[in-house]
Amino acid sequence: MISIGCVFVGLSVYSNTHAEIKFDKILQQHSGIHFNNQINEDSVHNFLNFANDNDLDLYVVSGGNEFDRNSARHRDRLYINDGRGNFHLSSNLPNIQTSGLRVIAGDYDNDGDLDLFVGGRVVPGRYPQAPNSYLLNNHHGRFTDVTQQRAKGIGAIGMVTDADFVDVDNDGDLDLLLVGEWMPITVFENIDGNFVDVTKKLGLADSTGWWLSLAHGDFDRDGDTDFVAGNIGLNNKYQPTHRQSLSIYANDFDGNASLDLVLAINKNHHLLPVRGATMFCRTSPGIEAEIPYIQSVCGSGFAKYLLVRKISHGVNVESGNIQPFDDY
Fold it and tell me: How far apart are CA 123 and CA 98, in angstroms?
């Protein structure tokens, strides 16, 4: 990774070693930071004045699927600018140890400094289980995890891909919008510094999709704030709709201590796996021995077997209309 002026480049853990050495040398010469790129997989960063001292500091989010979900390599880092362009690793950050993809800043409590939302992207090896996300309060440059006190519903909200602090209800404080994979467009209203989920109240509970991006602005120039959310689009093989929804089920179907996935289409009130039993057994070979039992009990109802015998104890994520929404 290098930081020269206002440029920051994050390298993959498995990038070229010779290039890493060259980048580290350049980085030390120009910023005083030494990053060991073999330690972390950095997914996103943010240059902002976290210390409230008129220069830009650096927050780095670690992510990816390469490491175990409990690995210290997923720990985020905060680097404070000493005012001369030299960055030093700060201890003023709690142990944010999640595989993330997004960090946004906003003064949600109106105390004059920038607070943070850190969105968890994935639990390595446990897709589609929801990772931890965090709300961090900034008090004179020291960050505290206040998720449980101020935003309980945010902790395991889903696989977050984008977020935005914005005053949705025009009451003078920042609310929080979130989107992600297998998530609805989610809105948390800021009520006296506490974030309350108002997604259902705003009519967005059925907006589940594979959301990837979020933006706001007065796009029609009528004086209020409009929002744009980017979904996966129409160029996907499943083509789900509200009437024919796509669902994902995850469990250790074959007993090998890892999650197996089943994608299913709900067609005419019948759950139909996207892949049949033969294909499923290729990825979960331990279940093949049970096929005769499946056929004798359920006939051709492979989906029924999965639903009754396994799915009810695993992870179930329903998805609605995975295509661009004209009204969002």
Answer: 8
Tens digits of residue pLDDT in 158-213: 999 999 999 999 899 999 999 999 999 999 999 999 999 999 999 999 888 889 99
Cα distance between residue 39 and residue 33, in whole Å = 15
Show Cβ contacts of residue 146 under 8 Å, excluding neighbours closer than 6 positions.
135, 136, 137
In terms of Cβ atoms closer than 10 Å to its own Cβ (0-12, 13-18, 19+), residue 49 is: middle
Task: Name the DSSP letter for residue 198.
Answer: -
Q: Is 71 helix (H, G, I), strand (E, B) or coil?
A: coil
For 205-229, letters b (16+ CB in 10 Å) and e give eebbbbbeebebeeeeeeeeeebeb
Burial of 115: CB neighbours in 10 Å, binned 0-12, 13-18, 19+: buried
Tally helices (H) and strands (E) across the chain: 5, 21
Which tokens hold the place of 162? 């984008």
- How, if at all, do strands 246-251 and 315-319 pair? antiparallel
